[in-house]
Amino acid sequence: MIYLKIIKEINSQGLTYVQIIKKLGMKKSTFYDQLSYLKNGKFPSIEMLMQIQEVLGIELIRFDI
Fold first, then answer.
1. What pTM does this model have?
2. Residue 58 vs residues 1, 8, 29, 44, 62: alpha-carbon distances, Å
3. Which of 29, 34, 43, 62 lies deepest, with the highest CB count within 10 Å?
4. CB distance 31 to 20 below 8 Å
5. Taking a C-beta distance cutoff of 8 angstroms, is the pair 59, 12 a contact?
6. Is the pLDDT of residue 28 over 90?
7. Contact 42, 53 (CB under 8 A)
8. CB-based contacts of 24: which residues, under 8 Å, 6+ apart?
9. What does each C-alpha distance from 38 to 20, 34, 47, 64, 65 come to in angstroms?
10. Is pLDDT of 1 > 90?
């Protein structure tokens, strides 16, 4: 599950949500809404997932074109 992968990586890197939000340059409400979508089995924006994977240095999604 992508949600758990994000949460585990944030914790393993010793980061806070506030630090992630600042690195992403988004509003707290947007970040928490997107995480809530993931937690509830809904798909958030692809742009947000790509930003998170870049900030955390992990692969969440990949496109082979």
1. 0.83
2. 14, 11, 23, 17, 11
3. 34
4. yes
5. no
6. yes
7. no
8. 31, 48, 51, 52, 55
9. 16, 6, 14, 23, 25
10. no
